[in-house]
Structure formats: C-alpha cells, structure tokens
Task: structure prediction
Amino acid sequence: MKILHVIASIAPRYGGPSNAVIRLCREIAKFGHEVTIFTTNMDGNENLDVPLDRPVEIDGFQVQYFPIRWPRYYGFSLPFGRALAKHISRFDIVHIHSIYNFHTLAASHYCRKFNVPYLIRPHGSLDPYLTGRHPVRKRIFTSLFLQRDLDHAAAIHFNTQEEMQLTESIGIKAPGVVVPGGINPSEFSHLPARGSFSHKYPEVRDKKIVLFLSRINFKKGLDILARAFGEVAQKRKDVYLVLTGPDNEGYATKVRAWLREEGALGRSLFTGMLSGQEKLAALRDSDIFVLSSYTENFGIAVVEAMACGLPVVISNRVNIWREVNDAGAGIVTNCESHEVAEAIMRLLDNRNLREEMGKRGKKLVEEKYTWPELAKQITQVYEQILEKS
Result:
C-alpha cells in the first residue's frame, strides 16, 4: 500500500499526536508499505530546521515538510495545499491527524475529489470539554466544513472506546474504529540507573517524587494537582513534585502561582521538556505518576509511566482510565484535588501497593500498548477500507 499521513506539525513540542504519527509510520513501513508524511515546519513560534525542497528519509518512511504561513495557529501553508492537490491521487489511503486545521480541510477535499479513501484521527478534539472552548467559532467551522469531512471519511480513528463514546452526540455518519497509541518496548527495556535524575537535580535526592510528565497546558488539571500537592506537602516533608514537559503557552506562570499559594512551590521542580534518557531517568527515579487532566484523549505519558513500573494516579477524564482501573495499575479519581491528594498519600504510605500496581501496569502495556502490535491493527483497518472501496 501507498499510505499518506497528514498532520500540521511533527515537532516534539506538540507531544502525543506528533510522537504517535512518527512511531506509527515507522512500524507500518516495516511491513513493506510505502509510507509518507506531509506536514509543515511549524515549531511553536519558530520553524524547524528542515529541508523544504525534498523529502527526508526517516527510519524507512519519508517526510515532506512545507513552509508554515500566517495564520500559524491554523497550520496554514499554501504549498502544502498545492502538494496535496498534485500528489494525493497517487496514494491508496490517507490518514489525517487532528482537526480544526488547514490540512484537515485540504486533505479531505482532495481525497473526495480524487476518490481516495481517508481516515480522520481527532486526537480528542471532539471531546465536549474541548468543543466547549470557543464554542461559537467551532460550531461555525463544524457546520461549514468539518461535519462534511467527518461524515465522508472512510472511518474515524479513535484512540479509546471512551473517546468514541464521547462523540456520539455529534452524529458522525462515518464508522468509528478504535486503535490506541503505545510505546516501543525496546526503548523501555534498559532504563537508566536509579539515582541519575536526582544526581542532576540534587534537591530531589532522598525524596519521594511525584511526577507530572506532559505539556504544561490548561487541560492538564494542573490547578487540581497544585492544590492536591499542597495538601500532601503539609502532611509529609519527604515529598517533591517534579513537573516535566514543554511550556508552549507560558502556562507555567499560573502553575507556579498556584503552588506558591499552597506553600508548596519550594518543593516543586520544573525541568522543562525532557526526552530520551533524561525522560527515562525522571521516570526511573519517581515513585508516583499523576495526571489529573480535565480531558485526555489517550495519555501516552500514562503508558510510558506504566512501562517503567510506576503506579499512576489519573482522573476519570483520561480516556484509558477504565483500562487502568480494570488492570489495577493505578488509582482513578474525579477531577477533585482532595481525591487526588488522598490517592497520592495512599500510595506514598504503602510501598507494597506501589510495587504491585507498578507490576500490573507493566503487564497492561505489554499486552495492549506496543507499537508493533498497534501498527498491525491499523494496517488491517486500511486493508478493510480498501476492500470495501
């Protein structure tokens, strides 16, 4: 098969969606398929230092970058649109990632024009919590453009059953398929030695570490976490909160203010974005992972934490909460700070419980969330779509 993936940007700062596309394409290419990504060079307010005049080979697949133009937030690029018009007909199937962007409209339009079947992966953007932000703008955009793009798709690719259920009220005519995200097991098979993270950040040495690993963003429930950690910090003097992730919108200023109000800023560490061995070192030295999001399409950071044997505390708005709860891999709470604080305290006070949940989490990841298996599943979806079309 000749498969085209379309996404606004694959810069690391954009977290889960960018990471998922790259990992998925890498594994699909191993099956012998011809895989290409069309994207822009957008990297926040900057541009990626990448060639724009030729495709780039990455791990068996190609990436073609196009220059981002104003308005950047919309992911607009006229050369991107022209390339879709010129080349989309040579692909067997097109996989479109995210919505409310230029590339979604352009790719959907040209797929219909040239009778190329396409999937749309909303990455959680159809969650009522997010559609409720800027509702007038999104309602107009949906009625004019997006509803048609969704209805005429060969399938809507959801990451979890929960995500699919949350979109039922929209009345999308296209069928839904559920294939989650995951990790490459080899990346977690040899973790850094314990203590390497605390060696770099001596303030956390000999402390119990509560880890937040994600974008510093409005939807991540960091107001909840700040209040919860303030409550925990009053009861225990041996605990430290580590917040690891990119701050694309300056939101960390608010988080620091909340922690200061709780008297807990002095026991909080902001590392910025960590990747590779540095990220694994942070996971290795931590005791508990927390993600109290108001909405979370999937939560790849949760999977990474479980792969490292960490017990997790997540809200019931993180869409893999049912799987985590059923596996006994962590504690699920409402988006309420006292519940989060109680869950953290329960795990801090019970080492055996932490270790047992950590083991169950690793087993869950091995069984359900590895890219080689997930790539096989999505490839089967492509084949089924092509058989019908």
